[in-house]
Please model this.
Amino acid sequence: MNVPHEGPKRRSLTEVLEISCASKRDAAQFMEALVGLLSIRGLGPEATRPESIKMTLGLYALWQDVSVEGMWKYLEEGGTGKNIDATVTWCRLIGAEHTARYLQAINALFPDRQVLADDEARRRFVDQLGRRGTKDPLAELDREYKGAVDDVPDRLRAYLKGHLKEVEAWLAGSRA
Model:
């Protein structure tokens, strides 16, 4: 008898928020499940998303890019790297102060101490950072702040638990 293959069980927000972030593997499972749940809903235009959803997606991008490849990857991603000021605010909101300081140190490398908003200009600037001398300042900051994004999943999870109604309302298609 052939049994149809069922995909992974669709989790509720409450179930996703119960995933432990005790290890890097657990944190990755939590973040992937959370973003997957939001994506199933359909993200729609950014302007229509509540702040908690923008924050979740922005922090996910930061956590994923920096954890895997370093800050240069985050900065070179078009829609995410230029939103560093919002990301600093979100880090402070969830209590990830070390991550916020890391982002501020990155900001300080740019002209006028501000990450360039223009995607192409920012990419060129990031590319040139490593060519200016013997040391790449982004790599130096990655070493100095090694592990700075590691607590983002657990802090985000705790924050979202405290704002459950807003996120559930958005997932249901209404506004909180």
In short: The CA atoms of residues 26 and 48 lie 30 Å apart.
